[in-house]
Design brief:
five-stranded antiparallel β-sheet; Autotransporte_beta; mainly beta; 51% strand; Autotransporter domain-containing protein; Neuraminidase; 1 helix; twelve-stranded antiparallel β-barrel; elongated; 714 residues
Length: 714
């Protein structure tokens, strides 16, 4: 776990990433923290990035802590007191335990370390009278061990073992900066016997052991800033030469301290290491480059080589820093300096091919023996010539890590959020299309057969769809029963940005069976109807500046079934009214898919959709103006009985691991609808109908339906 380092940025707040637990995988600042950028600073983050903490200024020299869990503020009133400044410096891997210090400004800023479990409410506030003040710098990944400074002495605290100092009483200064997962190994900085401040490593069995420095005879200063989760590899910085240049180092008990150099060819300038992968193969930090800019780097231990991480758009100016690296060494998190000196949190993707194994040297054949002289004088055989060994193959040179362009984390998150908003609207569009298709009827009147053409227009927000098709119906032998079917094809579909139809259009089909007690629509009536549609989609996550464009393919499917019953009353010779009730079920979903692999951070999308069982209550009315014109309409509401939703999920590893479910709230429990239509009898055997309708959708959008059809009946 690396120690917490406070940084000041020029016009915007950059997340100060804090890693603990079994890994150093990237955890990103939640976007909601941007509101604090002018008054505060994030100083710690959980392993998965779902919990971010820090301090903000509420007045001059008056500071308060904040803790955001999955974008929601956590109540920290238990560690806040009037006249005292509270700071957060560390968060456990699961985000439940925080640590830091509380300064009493009325007593000259005296500091007391604390450890607080936001889940259980447990709070430890250092009250050892042996120390004037204490300050906590880090907490172990399991949240059980706090380390820091007590009166300029390194300490650790756990509920099990209590409060203890790490070094002897004659140590002038020491600071515990980092701790591994279980709290068994602690690293930091302390004054050694030669009065130099140097990096140290502490275990119960060895005590404080100085790691020395990069200068001969271990002179000069050094500091340990991070340790691998298993406690084997320590990284930090050390004075490297007589010019007091500061260089990054890698330390193990077997190899000792090793200089990592800098990004300059002559290894001049400065460098410092801030994080290390799980196996110690990859180390990241910042270093001077040839142009005298501070740039992020990744160091490959086996290759003993440092690689510069690219800035945004390969800009030759501006600074960058690598703050952390994932467990597997494939993703680096950090920041770059962009326009107007603003800093942006970014990711780099690494693709490393290890050094090839050098083949062994070929065995040189022995010199052949001289032939023995024959007893009977014969001509001796010519000795065979020695076989000349093949020239060994040159071993292939190791290939350095392939480093992607950095990706803006916040913009990438926003691009997925926009995809979620559009997905809801498109699902609602196809729900609307299902309803419209299921209600499409051939106007057969009292005749026995009917056939015709129809077109329907469906719209939700900026998404719309036009479909044209055929329908027909006929009367069964029992004249009270009629049945029919419809089929259409979408011929013009406009979807939200990033969504487009693909492939051949699948036909949408509908069918119905109806019982009507009387030909004039009075009396009891019942109807069973169903509809199905399917559409292929090409979905593109549009790139913004410093983010990637991802593309994938999916399908939308929709099913609809309705069982309706009503009773018609004649208000007059021209007017009927029919109260009705229905059970309606629909299932509209978009299949899951993964963006193509030609980008560094592809998104994986799960199934999205909803299944609804509703009770429809309403009333229909129809009125004959004359023999040629008939008006009809209806009003009512769908009342939710049972609802199951698969929320939109879009996971981009390392970018939004803890924030990839886009919950839109519960569906509306009561969804009103209204519709109206006009039938015009062109001839006694043919009818032209126009209709329009509105209903509220599952995702609280407005669905509009318009239809036009022609029927011929006989």
């Amino acid at each position: 776990m690396s120690d917490n380092k406070q940084k000041v940025f020029k016009q915007s707040l950059l997340t100060l990433m804090f890693f603990s637990g079994t890994s150093f995988s990237f955890a990103a600042m939640d976007y909601k923290l941007s509101a604090l950028e002018t008054i505060g600073q994030a100083t710690a983050i959980s392993a998965d990035g779902s919990v971010v903490g820090g301090t903000y200024e509420i007045a001059s020299d008056s500071y308060r802590p904040f803790l955001m869990k999955n974008g929601q503020s956590v109540d920290l009133s238990k560690i806040q007191e009037e006249g005292k400044n509270t700071y957060i410096t560390g968060i456990s891997a699961d985000g439940n335990v925080i640590t830091g210090s509380i300064r009493d400004m009325s007593s000259g800023g005296v500091s007391r370390a604390y450890i607080y479990n936001t889940d259980t409410g447990y709070l430890y506030l250092s009250d050892d009278s042996s120390f004037e003040e204490t300050s906590s710098n880090a907490v172990s990944g399991d949240g059980k061990t706090m380390v820091g400074i007590a009166d300029s002495r390194a300490f650790r605290f756990s509920e099990e073992k209590g409060f203890s100092l790490l070094d002897s009483a004659d140590t002038a200064f020491s600071s515990a900066n980092g701790v591994n997962k279980d709290g068994s190994v602690i690293v930091g900085r302390s004054t050694n016997k030669q009065k130099n401040l140097q990096a140290f490593k502490y275990t119960d069995s060895t005590g404080v052991v100085s790691l020395g420095s990069l200068i001969k005879d271990n002179k000069g200063e050094s500091s340990a800033s991070a340790i691998s989760s298993n406690g084997l590899v320590t990284v930090g910085w050390s004075v490297a030469n007589e010019n007091d240049d500061m260089h990054a180092f890698r330390h193990t008990d077997i190899e000792g301290m090793r200089d990592l150099g800098t990004l300059r060819k002559d290894n001049s300038g400065f460098s410092m290491a801030s994080s290390v992968s799980r196996d110690g193969q990859f180390i990241v930090g910042s270093s001077s480059n040839e142009d005298d800019y501070s740039r992020g780097f990744v160091y490959v231990s086996d290759e003993k080589k440092m690689y510069e991480l690219k800035p945004l758009e390969n800009n030759l100016t501006g600074e960058s820093s690598a703050e952390a690296i994932s467990d597997d060494g494939k993703v680096v998190a950090g920041y770059v300096q962009g326009d107007n000196n603003e800093t942006t949190a970014v990711l780099w993707k690494l693709n490393y091919t290890p050094e090839q194994i050098i083949p062994p040297e070929p065995v040189i054949p022995l010199t052949p023996l001289e032939p023995s002289k024959p007893v009977i004088p014969v001509t001796p055989l010519e000795p065979s010539k020695p076989v000349i060994p093949l020239t060994p193959l040159e071993p292939s040179k190791p290939i350095g890590p392939e480093i992607s362009n950095p990706v803006d984390v916040n913009k990438t998150r926003r691009s997925v959020s926009r995809m979620a908003n559009s997905s809801d609207q498109i699902l609602d569009l196809y729900q609307t299309a299902l309803y419209n298709l299921a209600d499409s009827r051939c106007q057969m009147g009292s005749d026995s057969y009917c056939a015709g053409l129809f077109t329907q227009y469906d719209s939700v927000q900026k998404n719309n769809r036009v479909a044209t098709g055929l329908f027909g119906s006929f009367r069964l032998r029992a004249e009270n029963w009629t049945t029919g079917a419809s089929l259409n094809f979408a011929n013009n579909t406009n979807l939200a940005e990033g969504y487009d139809t693909r492939g051949s259009n699948h036909p949408a089909v509908g069918a119905w069976l109806r019982y009507q007690e009387n030909m004039d629509n009075t009396g009891l009536n019942s109807e069973l109807s169903a509809a199905f549609l399917q559409q292929g989609l090409e979905i593109t996550r549009k790139a913004q500046k410093n983010s990637e464009e991802g593309k994938g393919y999916s399908d939308i499917k929709g099913y609809y079934v309705s069982l309706q019953t009503g009773y018609g009353f004649a208000l007059s010779e021209q007017t009927n009214i029919t109260p009705l009730a229905a059970l309606k079920y629909h299932d509209v979903s978009r299949a899951g898919y993964t963006e193509s692999d030609n980008i560094n951070f592809p998104a994986v999308y799960g199934r999205a959709g909803n299944k609804n069982l509703d009770l429809q209550l309403g009333v229909n009315i129809n009125h004959h103006i004359n023999e040629s014109i008939e008006l009809d309409g209806g009003i009512g509401a769908d009342i939710r009985i049972n609802h199951k939703r698969d929320d939109f999920t879009g996971l981009i590893r390392y970018v939004n691991d803890s924030d990839y479910i886009y919950y839109r709230g519960e569906s509306q429990s009561v969804k009103p609808y209204v519709h109206a239509g006009l039938n015009y009898a062109i001839t006694p055997d043919s009818t032209l109908r126009a209709n329009v309708g509105y209903h509220t959708t599952d995702y609280r959008n407005d669905g509009v339906q318009v239809g036009l059809n022609y029927s011929y009946h006989w």
